[in-house]
Amino acid sequence: MTHEQYSLLTTRELAAKYGTSIGEMEKQFQPEELVPLNAATNGVTPQGIRRFLEASGVSYRFRVIAHSTMRGGIGKTTATISTAVRAAQYGFKTCVLDLDPQGSSSMALGAVPDDDDPIFYDIWQRPEELLAEALVQLSSHLSILPSSLENALLDASLLNPGSQKKAVRGVCDQLRLLGFDTVIVDCPPSLGIAVISAICAAQTIVIPVGSDAFSLKGLDLTLSEINSICDTFGLPHPAVRILYTRHDQRETVSRNALSKLTERYPNLPLAIIRTSSEFSKVLAAGETIFTRYAKNSAREDYDRHVSELLEIVRQPE
Ligand SMILES: Nc1ncnc2c1ncn2[C@@H]1O[C@H](COP(=O)(O)OP(=O)(O)OP(=O)(O)O)[C@@H](O)[C@H]1O
Ligand SMILES: [Mg+2]
Question: Which of 6, 34, 48, 175 ranks highest by number of CB atoms within 10 Å?
């Protein structure tokens, strides 16, 4: 199976999303936009869903979305790969920009670079010449600029504030010229220079938060750093969204952290991802929650988050 075949949005999901029957949903597509998957449902090609959504007012304008927080292990990579795979399924021409020297997104998407394969560190100074060759295409609508340990050297080489402001932006501008409309950035769990550069490039920053005190502290620090970076560089402030991950309604600590968050940041958009064993299962199998067809909370929650993030709301007819 190619990545493309197991990575399609289904007419069953679309029917549930728009409150209609699978049969009615399938009438919206041309025969060449439907791919038989199993007895219950067909897949829809990214081209097909894009035609359908564009006709209903969804915008495929260029966006850079970064995942960042100082707190480690809280869901940046999970959010990056889930969002990117789903965005591609919805017909967005998506590129994952892996800036984390741990290369977790690259690993999860099966794109670990060889020693001599170029990564961000090698190409940021001349993206117009070097970027296209460095990208790994995973499917028609999904590519990745993989990462490896050498990206840790960025902190030493991006010393000049002008370079910090431009490095990630320059690469994103080139991705746009190459035809991408969505760039999803995975940042390391720090406030190193690569993260500062990503913050300068992003229109939206998604900050994953868990129920522990460190994660709330991580949120506060990340928010104040975003403000001071944008003020220092004279840049407009990005939109910020909180992604509350691993929520468990049965756990007092999880419910309390959620109410604390909504009290403290009543104006920040918040998406909730419930805790699910599905994430570790799919990771172990080299897949993502959207490259398997099982119905589960992980898939539902991320679909809701991605739909809000990318404004995939079909206008009423
Ligand atoms: N909603 C969830 N329910 C259960 N497990 C989850 C959920 N979200 C993420 N995880 C798991 O939590 C672990 C850490 O997630 P992830 O690697 O995405 O965090 P990270 O912020 O990228 O970490 P790092 O700071 O090391 O880069 C992974 O094993 C992932 O499968
Ligand atoms: Mg990570």
Answer: 175
For residue 87, count other CB atoms closer than 10 A to its CB. 28
Predicted local distance difference test score (pLDDT) of residue 2 = 45
Could you report the per-residue pLDDT of 60-91, keeping only the tens digit for each?
999 999 999 988 999 999 999 999 999 999 99
Tell the residue nearest (CA) to atom 14 of ligand 1: 73
Q: Report pLDDT for 5.
A: 46
* 246-276 pLDDT per residue, tens: 999 999 999 999 999 999 999 999 999 999 9
Q: Structural domains in the chain?
A: 1-44 (no CATH), 59-309 (3.40.50.300)
Average pLDDT over residues 145-154: 96
For the whole model, what pTM was predicted? 0.96
Tell me the pLDDT tens digit for each residue of 277-301.
999 999 988 889 998 878 899 999 9
Q: Which ligand is nearest to the CA of 83?
A: 1
Ligand 2 centre to CA of 268 (Å) is 23
Q: What is the distance in A from the centroid of ligand 1 to the CA of 15?
A: 30
Spell out which residues line ligand 1, taking CB within 6 angstroms: 72-78, 100, 102, 104, 189, 245-246, 273, 275-276, 279-280, 283
Ligand minimally distant from the alpha carbon of residue 68: 1
- Sheet with 9-10: list strands edge to edge: 9-10, 42-44, 34-36
